[in-house]
Design brief:
Elements: E1 6-18, E2 25-37, E3 41-45, H1 52-59, E4 67-72, E5 75-76, H2 82-91, E6 93-96, H3 108-113, H4 125-137, H5 153-165, E7 171-175, H6 183-199, E8 203-207, H7 211-214, E9 219-224, E10 227-230
The structure holds adenosine-5'-triphosphate and magnesium ion.
Length: about 230
C-alpha cells in the first residue's frame, strides 16, 4: 500500500508576543513539533491561554512563527510571499471559529459562496453544485434564502462548516467549533465534522475544551507549557 502523505509538518515552532510593558516578549509556543497525515482528525486540548488559537493561526497562515518551520502540502509557509499565503488561506485551508462569523446582511447561500468570489468561482456550475450538495448534506437546503439572524446557533455553525469546505480545502481548522452551543447541538456538530473529515477526505484539526469531542478524533494532543504532548 502506498504511504499516506504527510500534509502538515511543524518543526520546532516558536511564537512569542510583546508583553503589556511593550518590551518584554512572552513565550507562548516554545518548540512545537507535529506531523499529520492526510485525512487524519486531530484534537488539541489545553487550558485557556495555553496558545491553542495562536497555534491554529500559525498553521492557517494568519500569523507568522518567530522561528521553526511549518510545511503545508509540501510548501514552507515561512518562505511563501503574500500572494502565495493568500492563495493558501483561501484554497488550502478552511476555518471554523467558536462564533460563526457569518455576514448578517447576506443570505445563507450568499454566505457560503463568499470564499469562492476571489477566484471568480461564484458562478462556476461545478462550484455551485458542490455548494448545493454540501448545504443538502448539512440539511439546510430549505434555509438557503434565510439570513443568519433567522437561524439557530447550531444551524449557523452548519452554514459556517459548509462555507469552510466550499473551496475543497486540504485542511479544516476548527477553533472551539462547539464552544458556543448547548450539549446536544455541540454533539451533532462534532459528529458532522468527523463525518465530513471522512467523506471529504479533509484533514481536520480541532481545538476544543471538550474531552468527549477530542476522544472521537483519531489523535489527541495537549498544549502544555508551550509544547504539544501526545494523548492516548
Ligand atoms: N496578538 C496578541 N498579542 C499579545 N498577546 C497575545 C496575542 N494573542 C494572544 N496573546 C496571548 O497569548 C496567550 C495565548 O493565547 P491564545 O489565544 O492562543 O490561547 P488559547 O489557548 O486559544 O486560549 P482560549 O482557550 O481561552 O481560547 C494568551 O496569554 C494571550 O493573552
Ligand atoms: Mg483560543
Amino acid at each position: 500500500m502506498p504511504d499516506i502523505p504527510e500534509i502538515l509538518i511543524l518543526d520546532d515552532v516558536h511564537k512569542s508576543y510583546t508583553g503589556s510593558d511593550g518590551v518584554k516578549r512572552r513565550e507562548i509556543l516554545t518548540g512545537i513539533n507535529l506531523r499529520i497525515n492526510a485525512g487524519q482528525s486531530i484534537a488539541i486540548l489545553g487550558p485557556s491561554g495555553s496558545g491553542k488559537s495562536t497555534l491554529l493561526n500559525l498553521i492557517g497562515a494568519l500569523d507568522k512563527a518567530d522561528s521553526g518551520r511549518i510545511t503545508l502540502d509540501g510548501q514552507c509557509l515561512g518562505e511563501a510571499n503574500e500572494k502565495e499565503l493568500t492563495h493558501f488561506r483561501s484554497n488550502k485551508i478552511g476555518f471554523i471559529f467558536q462564533q460563526h462569523h457569518l455576514l448578517p446582511q447576506c443570505t445563507v447561500w450568499e454566505n457560503i459562496l463568499i470564499p469562492t468570489i476571489p477566484a471568480g468561482l461564484n458562478k462556476d456550475p461545478v462550484t455551485l453544485e458542490r455548494a448545493r450538495r454540501l448545504l443538502n448534506r448539512v440539511a439546510l437546503d430549505d434555509h438557503r434564502q434565510k439570513r443568519p439572524g433567522q437561524l439557530s446557533g447550531g444551524e449557523c455553525q452548519r452554514v459556517a462548516v459548509v462555507r469552510a469546505l466550499v473551496n475543497r480545502p486540504l485542511l479544516l481548522l476548527a477553533d472551539e467549533p462547539t464552544g458556543a452551543l448547548d450539549e446536544d447541538t455541540a454533539t451533532s456538530i462534532g459528529d458532522l465534522l468527523i463525518e465530513l473529515n471522512k467523506e471529504e477526505s479533509v484533514t481536520l484539526i480541532t481545538v476544543t475544551h471538550s474531552v468527549e469531542l477530542a476522544h472521537r478524533m483519531s489523535r489527541t494532543y495537549k498544549l502544555h507549557n508551550g509544547t504539544l504532548e501526545a494523548g492516548q
